[in-house]
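Problem 12. The chain below contains 470 residues. Write out its predicted structure in token notation.
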Amino acid sequence: MTGTTPHTQHTWLGSDRPLARAVGRPMMRFLGIEAAGGVLLIVATVVALVWVNSPWSASYHDLWNTEIRLGIGDLIALEHNGHPLNLGQFVNDVLMVLFFFVVGLEIKRELVTGELRRFRAALLPAVAALGGMVVPALIYLAFAGDGDASTGWGIPMATDIAFAVGVVSLLGSRVPTPLKVFLLTLAIVDDIGAILVIALFYTSNLEPGWLILGAVAVAVAIAMARARIRYSPLYVVLGVVLWYSVFRSGAHTTIAGVVMGLLAPAVPLLGADHASEAVGPVIAGEGDVATVRVARFHLSETVPVTERLENLLHPLTGFVILPIFALANAGIVISGDSVVTAASSGISLGVAVGLVFGKLVGVSAFTLVAVRLGLCSLPAGATTRHVVGISAMAGIGFTVSLFITGLAFDAPGLQDEAKIGILVASAVAALLGSAILYGARPAESPPVTQGFDGSPVATASEPVRDDRDL
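Solution.
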């Protein structure tokens, strides 16, 4: 059986059934990368904090302020406010585009084959995410008040998928698998909200000409997809054109990454029968080089483009780009003065209380009210305590919160106040959520675990057997 080992062929997760191939195994790979990526994020954050508070702190700032000059003569291809990008800006404006491209792929997968494809299944995480965005933003504004500080209201709205999934994974069976799927889907909907906030509220001084060029690139990509043109280099070129046009337009480049991710096909071009016909001659030893090339194409096109790209890029973003981002952005000077300033700062308090208390109240209240009204049901095996614990975990806002901080504030002092709030809140949310979930009763997992709307989902640690023809 393709892609399985002898000891897993007889499990649901290791089977060749459509649901196992399309949902089970991709979900387990995704969760595994997120959990390991969360550990690397923590390591990178600790390194940044130790480095910037050490006698070698000057080298930290010198590194990330190093200018990158790409251009010909006086023509600079990458510049910010008339100056070449420095290394820190390159990480945020260039490397992070790949991260948001993967986010776009995740959103597309969820919309087509995941939990968001059915209205009733999507309703619960959508409602929960709405509460987890509105309540923290209102709490932040209550602390920050008017003036320059008010622009940071989007900071406590975010949930860090890698950190949250990583912490939850350490709790094992105390957290039902459907609840982990719920957290993952909630965080993806949260990402959609964060992307909309960035596009609508943290973009200014737009250049219409560059936006038109970006729109043309999108239109060409859509036309090529509908014409079933599958030559990847063409899409890479269009993606670069879209990214550069958005970069020069004044909008943030994350939008380009998400748009290209959403344009990727989430349905395979060919069915398994086509692959069998093409591979047959190769297996029989009758194929030449051309036959092998055709067979490889047919095999490749039985897997959706979104899944292939996620498998290729997700480890890169989770294990390389996000830790580099944390290293570049988590360097905060911790001193007596900075702690006193943060303790009395409306920005720090607004971010911290918004993430910890706002997420816990917003996510859990909106979720439980939706369930009480009969709009949807709790994830299988979950109790009210589980929901409250997961809501607390949603307060781990690290990556996207740091990202929005850089967009919300230009002054380094205001950025540091927000970053201190983010770091404190993320740590408190992780500890609080873990304490609540650790005390919850162990989930009684049935042979076939379910998504929060009742659909089968396999776990990585427990082989799932299902004799039904899925």
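Discussion. The radius of gyration is 23 Å. Students who got a different answer should revisit the alignment rule from Section 12.3.
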